[in-house]
Amino acid sequence: MASIITVNLPQHSYDIMIVPGSLGRLGEYMANLKLGNKVLLISNPIIFKHYGQKVINSLESEGFKVAHQILPAGEQYKNPNSIQKIYDVALANHLERSSTMIALGGGVIGDMTGFASATWLRGIHFIQVPTSLLAMVDAAIGGKTGVNHVQGKNLIGAFHQPDLVLIDPYILRTLPSREFRAGMAEIIKYGIIWDTELFARLEKSKNLSQLWHIKSELMDFILQYSCQAKVDIVSKDEKETGLRTILNYGHTIGHAVESLTGYTQLTHGEATAIGMFAAGEIAIKLGMWTKENSQRQNALIEKAGLKTKLPDSLNISKIIDALQKDKKVKEGKVRFILPTQIGGVEITDRVPTTAIYEVLSSMRTRD
Amino acid sequence: MASIITVNLPQHSYDIMIVPGSLGRLGEYMANLKLGNKVLLISNPIIFKHYGQKVINSLESEGFKVAHQILPAGEQYKNPNSIQKIYDVALANHLERSSTMIALGGGVIGDMTGFASATWLRGIHFIQVPTSLLAMVDAAIGGKTGVNHVQGKNLIGAFHQPDLVLIDPYILRTLPSREFRAGMAEIIKYGIIWDTELFARLEKSKNLSQLWHIKSELMDFILQYSCQAKVDIVSKDEKETGLRTILNYGHTIGHAVESLTGYTQLTHGEATAIGMFAAGEIAIKLGMWTKENSQRQNALIEKAGLKTKLPDSLNISKIIDALQKDKKVKEGKVRFILPTQIGGVEITDRVPTTAIYEVLSSMRTRD
Ligand SMILES: NC(=O)c1ccc[n+]([C@@H]2O[C@H](COP(=O)([O-])OP(=O)(O)OC[C@H]3O[C@@H](n4cnc5c(N)ncnc54)[C@H](O)[C@@H]3O)[C@@H](O)[C@H]2O)c1
Ligand SMILES: NC(=O)c1ccc[n+]([C@@H]2O[C@H](COP(=O)([O-])OP(=O)(O)OC[C@H]3O[C@@H](n4cnc5c(N)ncnc54)[C@H](O)[C@@H]3O)[C@@H](O)[C@H]2O)c1
Ligand SMILES: [Zn+2]
Ligand SMILES: [Zn+2]
């Protein structure tokens, strides 16, 4: 099965192609785009070892001149220094305005390659080949690119749209299960905030925690509907002035939990799962949605092998302090995205601190 | 006299205000734009000493919270390291999406502040207060921002449009004459490539080499018509895919001469003057324009106190080599912008190397 989602933006259009086994055909697809013949491939050592040569062969067989730069794996390398390294190889290989940078990796490689391509010669072509589930359904779509400042995540960046996003679900076979679940958290999120059909299909599946529990048709369906959800939302709000906020569902408390545990103890998806659970409980308390819907959400989180209890180490007042410091706070009020139905959320800054406190207290493993 | 040029781009509009004595009213103008109340002012030590406090007072009296960052003067500091310093103060002062960075300086400060504002939080507001003549009529307009890579000028950058360009001609009083003439070279360029009326007014003036030789009404006229010329050209070609190329008139040979003399011996304007003279001579040789028009151009160059002879140190074959290496070269052919009339140029890659050689030879001071 192959599906193509065409993203139409006011100044630019591109395709998201979801095609099993397509990695070795990247060269062909690229040739169709009529871009210049110089290509710079960016990856990390693990991913390059699995897939790098295949991509290079495919590109070279179509006549592209391919240089590559391998950056160390890990969020801690998503910084200006890595961007400088990309610039250096771009220069050494005489990349021109017509040239293309290709990201072969998860969100970290995608965000960095996107930013380097946004700023080299004030913007060159850019192709995303996401290799993690999270990158496929989330990071590779929407045009946000960037790196971290030592003191804060994603503070430096640019909007820059790709010319192609190529998703080959087979690549997921080598993805560690914990990373798979991180992507699944975002997929469940799309079910809650946007797409009832996606939610229903997830409910029908017995297990969502690892790739081999999921039939390949279902996996294709999940990828297609998730990408479509993200495309729908970001296309309506390209520069993040309104609607895009709903993508932060589960991320308000999620981010606080992530940062308080130093971004190491939990994956982003594990923190998001905790955040979605908490948002559901808060919404029940405010009379915005039903216990039954909340249980349906939480059943998916569980099937994805994600936990909903707070890590023991966390102090609840500290979480509440961290919420206040979040960059999404306006005039001291924490903005929550709360569910009102399956497939629908509301944005509100009227959540009483006592409600947050009570919900978080109920999420401790011990009392 | 005050004039306002409104720049209408598909996704953004802003004003260029040319108002003598307006520097102390920046706060008022900014208040009208309804931007957030946090401001980061970027300048260099010389300019900040003259004008920094005046700008800060004006902003603070309108309730803005102003932080500032002073970067060392000079093209050699237009690099990623200076951008990192801007990020650091942006973080320390909690700049938000609604906040504004203000460039108070020449093109160097303008390009860097523009790039930092383009990439901090993926783009925040940006105001240009150009203080050099070149920045007023050229660098501050068009949305090109960026810094240099150690191995090449302006290789790193982004397109980012300002929310306001405030031009106070009085600021030019402290500008060194050599820098004034650098700006005048670009103004003469606009006369040749675009605007016959501007050209005619320049012809009527006795001396164009220093501010105090020019009546203030004429100076206002020059600023207004030059800004309008740049706006016309860049608005028709926001992302530099075609028409903008004509802005490189005089810059083909100019750049070669600049880089071969290490960017220190000549100002950019001095190199451009040499380049415009050479382009005129080449155009005559190719039968594209008349000796008479060429002499009219060269008379302006002379009135601006700019020279048209090559520096003694330069070897002509080296200039021709450098032309071949220029980034504007496509498939080994040097692209020239050549005049065909006063107010009109053509782009051509069919200039025989012998013609370039002969013209450059005639421009030596000794034989
Ligand atoms: N731009 C956006 O809109 C956006 C959205 C969400 C997240 N992000 C960013 O994305 C990043 C997180 O992305 P991520 O979760 O993909 O992290 P990641 O890129 O660090 O990848 C996670 C891990 O999985 C490994 N990996 C990836 N694909 C693999 C494969 N096929 N086989 C084997 N190993 C593989 C990586 O080497 C890494 O160790 C964060 O930096 C986040 O800020 C960006
Ligand atoms: N973005 C664009 O479209 C664009 C276009 C042309 C040039 N540029 C860039 O602009 C830069 C050149 O700009 P520039 O010529 O303004 O150089 P600059 O910024 O270095 O200024 C020239 C000198 O004049 C001094 N100065 C400026 N204003 C002054 C004032 N009012 N009083 C006293 N001293 C003053 C500065 O301190 C500096 O020493 C280059 O980096 C070039 O790449 C950009
Ligand atoms: Zn997320
Ligand atoms: Zn110039």
Automatic annotation (TrEMBL), chains A, B:
Pfam families: DHQ_synthase, DHQS_C. Pathway: Metabolic intermediate biosynthesis; chorismate biosynthesis; chorismate from D-erythrose 4-phosphate and phosphoenolpyruvate: step 2/7. Binds 1 divalent metal cation per subunit. Can use either Co(2+) or Zn(2+). Signal peptide: none annotated. Residues 70-181 form the 3-dehydroquinate synthase N-terminal domain. GO terms for biological process: amino acid biosynthetic process; aromatic amino acid family biosynthetic process; chorismate biosynthetic process. GO terms for molecular function: 3-dehydroquinate synthase activity; metal ion binding; nucleotide binding. This is 3-dehydroquinate synthase. It comes from Richelia intracellularis HH01.
